[in-house]
Amino acid sequence: MSEPASISTGIAARYATAIYEIAKEEKALAALEDDINTLQSALSDSEDFRALISSPVYTREEQEKAISALSQKMGLTGTMANTLALMAQKRRLFVVPNLLATLRDIIAEEKGEVTADVVSAKALTKEQADSLAKTLKASTGKTVTLNATVDESLIGGLVVKVGSRMIDTSIRSKLNSLQNAMKEVG
Fold first, then answer.
1. If we measure between CA atoms, which residue out of 26, 34, 15, 6 comes closest to residue 93?
2. What is the pTM of this model?
3. Which of 8, 22, 44, 46 has the fewest C-beta atoms lying within 10 Å of its C-beta?
4. Is-contact 16 96, C-beta < 8 A?
5. Contacts (Cβ under 8 Å, ≥6 apart) of 20
6. Residue 117 in contact with residue 96, Cβ under 8 Å?
7. Cβ(118)–Cβ(148) under 8 Å?
8. pLDDT in tens, 96-115
9. pLDDT tens column, 18-28
10. Cβ partners under 8 Å of residue 93, min gap 6
11. Residues 134 and 89: beta-carbon distance below 8 Å
């Protein structure tokens, strides 16, 4: 891992742990999950928001005023709003994406859940997704949430990643293996 990535991950982990502990103490984990979803959709939908948190052009004061106004407009809890304002003061808003991911992981761990990244050649039907989640639950012992995406270059099959384990049953992968085996022969 590169040094800047590990630094931002460490910063995000400290903030995430603090936010989680406060929310747990205040019995406000559901509100925290709402905050995470709200911020995640803002990151996904707004180029201006991404620029605000990552651009060095804005001063600390500008970032703090903007993030406080946005927090109020988004209806974030006091804990999240205050943390974001503090992060703006400390020039740490660039770690917000890592912060959200870390918070999701902490909450999922607390609930005994795990997220599986599933890439398929075509969109999974509800029955296929339910069957896959049930199979993964049996193998992991935890409730599994699927994060499904489509990649038509797989031709067929699935690539499933749960934690550090990856299962690749795609046709593309099998064709690549066959191609490598044929190169070794001839």
1. 15
2. 0.71
3. 44
4. no
5. 32, 103, 106, 107
6. no
7. yes
8. 999 999 999 899 889 889 98
9. 999 999 999 99
10. 52, 53, 54, 63, 67, 84, 87
11. no
